[in-house]
Amino acid sequence: MDADWLPFHPAPSVPVFKAPAGAVDAHCHVFGPADQFPFAPQRKYTPCDASKDQLWHLRDHLGLSRNVIVQATCHGNDNRALVDALDAANGRARGVASVAEDVTDDELNELNRAGVRGVRFNFVRRLVDTQPHDVLRRIAERVAPLAWHIVIYFEAADLPDIHDLITSLPTRVVIDHMGRPDVSRPVEGPEFSAFVRLMRDNANIWSKVSCPERLSNVGPHGYEDVLPFSSLLVREFSDRVLWGTDWPHPNMKTHMPDDGKLLDLIPQIAPTQSLQRALLIDNPMRLYWPEEKSF
Ligand code: 0GY
To answer: Which of 7, 101, 249, 276 is buried most, with the most CB atoms less than 10 Å from its CB?
Structure first.
């Protein structure tokens, strides 16, 4: 692993907040193990291993029920570690894959069988060499008939450049980590208002209200500067928000969060039981397990 890599928290606390039964961690990753699933040659970082079994252990420790595993850039378009985890999850995990334009229909069908329900487009330059918008649009058109969605990861400053791509996609779109706002700017200021407007004007766009530890300038474990941003989205778009741990927290440089304490922030951003249920159960179930219809 990279010399400055911070491994995930070895012993997260048991959260004081008790998640409602059936709660979903809708953003997490598996890394390797590298001896079984080598990292991609074009990767921009080399992490520690973070296995599916360690993920299930964290899920149970936190009192959660299900996971959505997002393909991390260190595995490129090689989704084998993801599929391996999904196959071992007994239906308790779904996935978001990375694919290139030359992916075959058979490969897409196999990913669908394993539980993949979306493709991630990543625009964060320190993580990937980005692809042309027309290529991404064609990939979205390929996966739309499978009822998959597109997950998009970008920095707030890049929203103007990709706005038209996002609004032209033929699927639901889920934006990672609230579009990574600069939380030193006002929540009512022009930058975050543009993001809120994007969601207001496009009913197919969802947001993950995840990663306070990545966005915060004040740090653990209150992350007070991020909460106004996540609270606003939960309040205004209660049926289009998702929450996740982001375990094993790739590329954290300042500190490693305690996953239990991340869960303890939920009542601050979703203060009522009905908002908590929407955020942790109803919304992720609608997106990832729609066939269960028990939510
Ligand atoms: C995240 C954030 C990061 C990394 C990745 O796929 C990835 O490599 O998503 C990051 O470095 O900000 O969502 O896990």
So the answer is: 249
Atom of ligand 1 nearest to the CA of 120: 6
Closest residue CA from atom 6 of ligand 1: 72
Coil, helix or strand for 269?
Answer: helix
What is the number of the ligand 1 atom nearest to the C-alpha of 210?
Answer: 13
pLDDT surpasses 90 at 60:
yes
**Which single residue is written with the structure tokens 């989704």?**
79
d(CA 13, CA 63): 12
- What does pLDDT average to over the chain? 97
pLDDT for 172: 98
Containing structural domain, residue 64: 24-288
CATH assignment of the domain containing 43: 3.20.20.140
The count of structural domains within the chain is: 1
Q: Report how far residue 221's alpha carbon sits from residue 213's, in angstroms, rounded to the nearest whole number.
A: 8
Mutate to test the pocket of ligand 1, among 27, 124, 245 (most ligand atoms within 8 A of CB): 124
- Compute and round to an integer the Cα radius of gyration of the chain: 18
Q: Does residue 34 fall inside a structural domain?
A: yes
1 part of a folded domain: no
Closest by alpha carbon to 245, among 91, 54, 110, 88?
54
- Point out which residues pair with 118 in neighbouring strands: 96, 149
Predicted local confidence at residue 130, as pLDDT: 81
Predicted pLDDT of residue 295: 60
Domain assignment present for 108: yes
Residue 178 lies inside a defined structural domain of this protein: yes
